Amino acid sequence: MIARLRREPALIVVVVLLFVLVVGAILVATVGRNFFSPGNIRDILTGMSVLGLVAIGQTLVIIGGSLDLSVTQVISLSSLIAATTMAGNPANIPLAVALTLGVCALIGLVNGYLVAGLHVHGFIATLGVGLIIQGYLNTAYSGSAGEVPWAFQLLGATGIGPVPVSTIIMLVLAFAVSIYLNRTRAGAHLFAVGGDAEIARLSGVSIKRPIIMAHVLCSIFAGLAGLLLASRLGVGSPTVGDQGGYALLSIAAVVLGGTLLMGGKGSVWGTIGGVAIFAVVDNVMSVMQISPFIKNVVRGVVIIAAVAVYSRRVVQERRARFAAQEARATDASHLEHAGGAK
Questions:
Q1: What pTM did the predictor assign?
Q2: Residue 44 is part of which domain span?
Q3: Which residue, 41, 97, 294, 338, is most buried by CB atoms nearer than 10 A?
Q4: In this structure, are residues 143 and 238 in contact, taking their beta carbons and an 8 Å threshold?
């Protein structure tokens, strides 16, 4: 069983999530609350929605061997574009959504071109783009702006039973991305480029296109998260992305879900599992009224643990890779000696 867990990162995520659920239920019971009540389940699923959307996009770029630190600023910008364009008028909702996602796609295109076209490391490229957006936000907005009509606010306020509509949308999009990664040529090319760009190039795979597309989709998903936050707040906010810390949390959720930070291997459903772990931990600490400062400490511990798991997997994968290469070299040597003997 232990050996199987080491081979299957998805099983590790499931085991960790079950462990967190059990411990969370026990801790919540100590304060006289029912962890599995419909209201609490709704709170957990609501907490998963925004981070889940960001983490789905982050999964794509990390599988491709890159990452995106600009999602925090993209979330804030998209909430402002949507709220100011809607201006309280339900008739403006389609235009606002299209304009918001169009701007986000353009930002992703810039990120992708910097990474794939100019060969700037994803960390530096997206950090720089994020700082440019942050400078614009600080200059153009001094506080919240715009007004989201009630019809759009229902997106973040309604649900089917204990399941929020926003969570259903997030899961449907996760399913679509899973199909994209596992059933399409573009998804296969993204895995190939993330695994080894040079081998992918020699195999005839376009290096630039999968990375650019991954960054475009990542920014679009960040834009969707911004739209969801705008629907919940009723206004656009230049700090809503920063307050959630979505850039680092999304990366941590992706790694915790079993995706290799160096790229080439990963699963969107593992990422959803990582998001669920964070949502359960946050919910338990909120129910127990634990200080927000302690909450950040716990998040930090989870992030460090996720990176530690990643580091161990990298070492194991490298050892396996070197062992396979050594075996192939040994077989080639034996064949050569056998041929010489003949």
A1: 0.87
A2: 2-311
A3: 97
A4: yes
